[in-house]
Amino acid sequence: MDPETLLQLAGSSLRLATPLLLACLAGLWSERAGIFDIGLEGKMLAAAFTAGAFAAVTGSAWLGLLGGIGASLLLGLLHGFASITLRGNQIISGVAINFLASGLTALVGQNWFHQGGLTPQLSGAARFEPITLPFAAALSQVPVLGPVYAGLVSDHNILLYLALAAVPLTWWALHRTRFGLRLRAVGENPAAVDTAGISVTRLRYGAALIAGLLCGIAGAYLSTAMAAGFTREMTAGKGFIALAALVFAKWRPWPALGACLLFGLLEAIGIRYQTITLLGWTVPVQLMQALPYILTVVILAGFVGRAVPPRAGGRPYVKER
Amino acid sequence: MTVGTDTRGAGKPDLAIELAGVSKSFGPVEANRDIHLAVRRGTIHGIVGENGAGKSTLMSILYGFYQADAGEIRVDGRPTPIPDSRAAIAAGIGMVHQHFMLVEPFSVLENVVLGAEDGRLLRPSLARARDALRRLERDYELEVDPDAIVGDLSVGAQQRVEILKALYREARILILDEPTGVLTPAEADHLFRVLAALRDEGKTIILITHKLREIMAITDAVSVMRRGEIVRTLPTAETSPAELAELMVGRRVLLRVDKAPARPGEVVIEARRLSLTDAGGARRLRDVSFEVRAGEILGIAGVAGNGQSELLEILAGIRPATSGAALLRGRPLDLSRATNGADRRARGIAHVPEDRHRRGLVMPFAAWENACLGYQDEARFAARFGLLDRDAIRAAARADIARFDIRPPSCDLKAANFSGGNQQKIVIAREMDREPDVLLVGQPTRGVDIGAIEFIHRQIVTLRDRGKAIILVSVELDEIQALSDRILVMFDGAVSGTRRAEETDERELGLLMAGIDPKAKGAA
Amino acid sequence: MRTSPPRWADLALIPAVNLLLALLVAGLVVILIGENPLRAVELLVTGSLGSSYGIGFTLYYATTFVFTGLSVAVAYHAGLFNIGSEGQAQLGCLGVTLVCLALDRTHWLLVLPAAILAGAAFGGAWAFLPGWLQAKRGSHVVITTIMFNFIASALIVYLLVNTLKVPGSMSPESRTFEAGAHLPFFHEMLAAIGIRVSRTPLNLSALIALLAAGLAWALIWRSRLGYEMRALGHSEPAAVYAGIDPARIIVIAMVISGALAGLMALNVIMGSQHRFVLDSVGGAGFVGIAVALMGRNHPAGILLAALLFGILYQGGSELAFEMPDISRDMIVVIQALVILFTGALENLTRAPIERLLARRGAG
Where is the ABC transporter domain (chain B) (predicted)? Predict the structure, then answer.
């Protein structure tokens, strides 16, 4: 494999990993606070549609992003209302949100734009275009460093950089701030937080909103940065791969980056090579597609390092008598 | 009612805590009734009482977890409403809960800082906490590694973290709820040194316990609670374990159960050096041995949490033992798994569990469905094709209802909708139905009304007279005395003494329950 | 003494109110789209129940949902949330397809028992591992079944593209079975006794679905195994006390659940499509969640809920034809709203209704 191909593959992995990463971090915030979130897919889809629609109508990618975040936040609040306020089943709520997004995006899309559920093709300011970082041209002649800088580090859209920045930011907020400390505590032992005089409800709503925000960016990335418009079911299971990556990363931010890059790479390879031959055996492309899920099951089974979810995950907090 | 200090009128400045007329009910249950309590500043004040006497409820009111229905709380002489934990903390009250309120994957420092941070960023808080911990460690022997993960610490160390949490919040009044229940004796001694040092620094400590030895060893004053009331407050120096035991148990009308002298037959079930070490490494049972004969009731007395529950569960096949053996008619029982319940029943051991809500009944099941719980695989309830014979089960349920006068007499009512006494009758009727060789009974009359108590007692004695071996675990001493032929007292996981029922009294049993054998020489 | 609401409130009133709320919100969506919701309901009902054609399709869809709804319900009674019915149904399709391909030169009466066994076995096998992992390793069955759904679809795509595809064909689907592996259609059976109805995909497996509902009812409410499953589902400590091994029951419940999901293949593969195409399951496993929730996990309720979703699916197609602005996606929205209101937001109505009834009972 020549260096240029390698570079292209790396760049493609990075672009494919970005929505996974944002959604995965969204799940991380939610689940570290003790709320299971299998509605990542739905929130992302709703955001992708709203971002695509708003960008098409207003001509501004940024307004699109705002719309996408808004849609995702609404679903996040719904999930919070069901699982925090009403103490309902978090899994059922997530399933409902996924269907709601799937149905509404297609229905409203068709009704609004009459293009078979698609939003109009975006161009110019309605899309997040790649940004060329400073010195990319100047450095391009420097061996190794130059092409890597110009071809891999530079020339991505702003949302991708935002996603990468969200990793250290998440880590920092979780481990270096008061909010993060309390949030992690509420996912492990809400009673400890309650007896310390802190509101469990407010913390959990906070987490649900952050998850909504990140899923919103992830969705906007899909329709206004990676593609030029929304297509039906464009998340195509990415929310569930993000969930898998979250388990794979054992609910930690830096490993989440690693897991998403790995799953992005698998997808990139699958797209680029229809057939891969390994030791004389042709690896089916479907195996590549299923690999994230298979790896996650292996991790879940605890055969390779045990993945222990936050202890209070999935259970509504009820003060004990 | 005798109260050590007059609590009526204006608050007194030398009192850290005053409760005046505090009452609290949960539905029809009066957990606390007209409590008056005065705790002097700079003392260790013990509160003793049996399980369910209302100690924990009272302390939860003081910590803002529950709201009192009536009465006033004064802290340092000032009336102080405590609507939530935050208010309690602000008033200088800290609490070490029986079940620790710790975040196990967090470090000690993070646990200490949680909820008492200095600002939005953690670093300054953690640095300040580190200094504070170093100081507290030096002053009070509260040594823990601030960077250790709490889940990796021993139970004793985790408890020190709870105390540190309270002290870091500058608590002047520290409440400890059954602090030694989970500790080894060495850890408990360590805790007492810490508490003494805290008192000497001017802190006020309220110690809830049912262990009389601890009260005598460490407190300055002691209040005895019984059935939701404080029956007496005394200076510790002027009382004795015997007096406290008597006050705790109370001079209740002795339950009379007419029974003929036992005519024990051959040994039916025996335990040989049963031991249990739990996941946390604490020894729950230590070399417990005994035997029970046909036609005999062995009562196991002891304050709750001294190993009786574990012993019963091991014999019932729903908890594995660490070592030792149990024999039924000379043949060993499998003690290796927690799923031997069916095997025990097949061998003629029936079990009335201590906790009917969690174990003895499936609450959303109808009464008739509960009538075969545990016996669902028996031929008498089986129809063809793996189906249950509903008619047979209903017939059995109806027979139980008639025989035990269960009310309302409805097979179809959900178990949850029966009163406590009738729920218990459903369980006991079911377990006695098949004439087991051995009946294990835990807390047969907990939460049961007086009429049902007599009835249940009579049933147990009748079963004995039919030549069955019965092991009875109860925290109600008078129940043990009324029913048992022999009484085995447990303390700290071990047998502290065995007596013939007619040759002992509550005073002696109370001492044995506190781990003191009055017949042994040099007893403390 | 704690009182629960009367049985009729629990079984009928609360689900009905929740369903009504879901439909009200759906009506709002229709208004927002700019159509008349009452007219939409009319189209929906006439499209699904107004003709033998509509009824046939409605019952055809309902048949599938009975299987997947039962699948979710059986697991639920053992305290397990199986969101993997979709993947288990896909494997069931594979099993039925293999049997049909092998035996389609014989007679459907011979093929049917083998197909039932294969569909149940393949679906059950796909649920076995998540069940085993939950029982023995504590891996949360919700997450593992989601993963198994995706693994199943990758596997099925691979097999359809590489193994089952007709050589030379472009479309990833198996060959069409010979007539020996076709279940009789209802319109054929009725024609044989002289009743003429429209040609619809409704086939013999509708009766098998009824039978399955009856068996599931007997399993859950009448059998010892069902008793043990329900005991475990309500209280694990009580189950252990009763001598029930939780690990064993979890695995068995999941396998039965998977087997029921797999049996939907009888209707779709052997009953109507007569071949295995990529989208044979088409989300029916997920509809099963809504059906089970709405049917309160009782087979009788599931029959009703499946019928309702059959009406939605068939009537929705007609509706989309008449009102192009209301596409078939409206069905997914309604499905989401049903899951939301009868599942996640259940406490929204339950608490007020219980309070109301308690006050009336007391007064």
Answer: 17-252, 269-517
